[in-house]
Design a protein that fits this description.
CATH class of the largest domain: Mainly Beta
Oligomer: single chain
Shape: globular
Mean pLDDT: 77
Domain F-box: 7-47
Largest sheet: 6 strands, antiparallel
Structural class: mainly beta
Strand content: over 45%
Number of strands: 27
Distance between the termini: 64 Å
Helix content: under 10%
Radius of gyration: 22 Å
Protein name: F-box domain-containing protein
CATH architecture of the largest domain: 6 Propeller
CATH topology of the largest domain: Neuraminidase
Number of domains: 2
């Protein structure tokens, strides 16, 4: 009797290429030969929808999002990742098919390859802080590294050597703690505030300019601040955030809250270490009753649509995790993807009968592509001694 293991390699490859990428993990476990093949070559048919990962309620979830042509309709499918269901995650980042997860109590980091099902645990010699900013990238030799930015400078962790490097610097810019870094072609980008010295009739003063900051993992240095679109200024924006468009472009989303809600998304035409240019992707006006908190997003250039994930609320102050679909001509549609639970510790006494509220903003990682990057599996433990620069 013919068994799965008796099939020819050519036939096995043909079968694997016809299987949806989301089903490959279960399929690999049925046969050692199939599992070995999938570790050396990317299989899985292309799916006609957004496929990626997001964080909801401190849990990592897979997400599929259909955007039909006829009505910008949405059919999201969100499932919690079983591999990480014992860990609460407060921050999530993506680069080159790997996901960087920050443990909620700041005790460590987890790097996860969803395609291969591998995880690598990383802990610092000194405690992580809730105000730390992170990014994941790689250098010119494809060595993957983690960037951690703190109030004392920044650190680099090399995944292959398990070595931390610490750089004690005082930059002329700052990155707000709520800003998430995104990675493109190995480099990481942040929205930051450049501090500029201005001389004039009022004497010498410091001026704050919103900028795009790039970290090069090869030189392990930040490049010069790059300009954002002229209409972007955080002092009159409720939300600004970055996302990737495929593997070549960045997109920046801004939500202005004034007399009416204005949503703008711009994408890069050119992106170099010392230069950037932008073009407007869409601009939409909405009534002030529509409020978006957090604002992680992805765009579909073909359909001219953006999907922005955030928290919305009604008059009873109940929060809802919502996907807002924004399109051309003022198109706007909200899809409720679940009520956001109040995550505050309600057993703690508060004055005057105040009931605390605390929510986890949904965060989506866009442009996920399966990767064959092998992680050196380890057990949770301390990192090696750090070098200082």
């Amino acid at each position: 009797m013919t068994t799965i293991s008796d099939l020819s390699e050519e036939l096995v490859e043909e079968i694997l290429c016809r299987v949806p990428a989301t089903s490959l993990k279960a399929l690999r476990s049925t046969c050692k030969k199939w599992n070995a093949l999938s570790k050396n070559q990317i299989f899985g048919k292309t799916e006609k929808q957004f496929l990626g990962f997001m964080m909801m309620d401190y849990r990592v979830c897979s997400v599929k999002f259909n955007l039909p042509n006829e009505d910008y309709g949405a059919d999201p499918s969100i499932k919690q990742v079983a591999l990480l269901d014992q860990v609460k995650i407060s921050k999530l980042f993506h680069c080159d098919g790997l996901l960087l997860c920050v443990v909620k109590d700041n005790t460590g980091l987890v790097v996860w390859n969803p395609y291969l099902g591998q995880t690598k645990w990383i802990q610092p010699r000194t405690s992580f802080l809730s105000s730390d900013r992170y990014a994941l990238g790689y250098d010119k030799n494809r060595n993957h590294k983690i960037l951690r930015i703190s109030c004392f400078g920044y650190e680099i962790y090399d995944l292959s050597s398990d070595l931390w490097k610490f750089y004690c610097v005082t930059p002329d810019w700052e990155i707000p703690s709520h800003q998430r870094g995104v990675s493109l072609k190995g480099d990481s980008y942040f929205l930051g505030h450049e501090k500029i010295t201005v001389s004039g009739g009022e004497g010498v003063r410091r001026k704050i300019e919103d900028s795009l900051l790039c970290f090069d993992f090869t030189s392990e240095r930040f490049g010069p601040p790059l300009p954002l679109p002229l209409s972007f200024h955080s002092y009159r924006s409720e939300t600004m955030t970055l996302s990737c468009v495929g593997e070549e472009q960045l997109a920046v989303f801004s939500y202005h809250l004034n007399l009416s809600s204005v949503y703008e998304i711009w994408v890069t035409n050119k992106l170099e270490p010392n230069a950037v240019s932008w073009s407007k992707f869409l601009r939409s006006f909405r009534g002030s009753h529509v409020h978006i908190e957090a604002g992680s997003f992805f765009i579909d250039e073909g359909k001219k649509v953006a999907v922005v994930f955030g928290l919305d609320y009604k008059y009873d102050e109940t929060r809802y995790q919502t996907a807002h679909i924004i399109g051309q001509g003022g198109y706007f549609k909200s899809v409720n993807i679940g009520e956001a639970p109040n995550l505050a510790k309600l057993d703690k006494p508060y004055m005057f009968g105040y009931t605390p509220r605390k929510y986890c903003y949904p965060v989506v990682c866009s442009s996920y592509v399966p990767s064959l990057v092998q992680l050196q599996i380890n057990q949770p433990g301390k990192g090696k001694e750090r070098d200082y620069y």
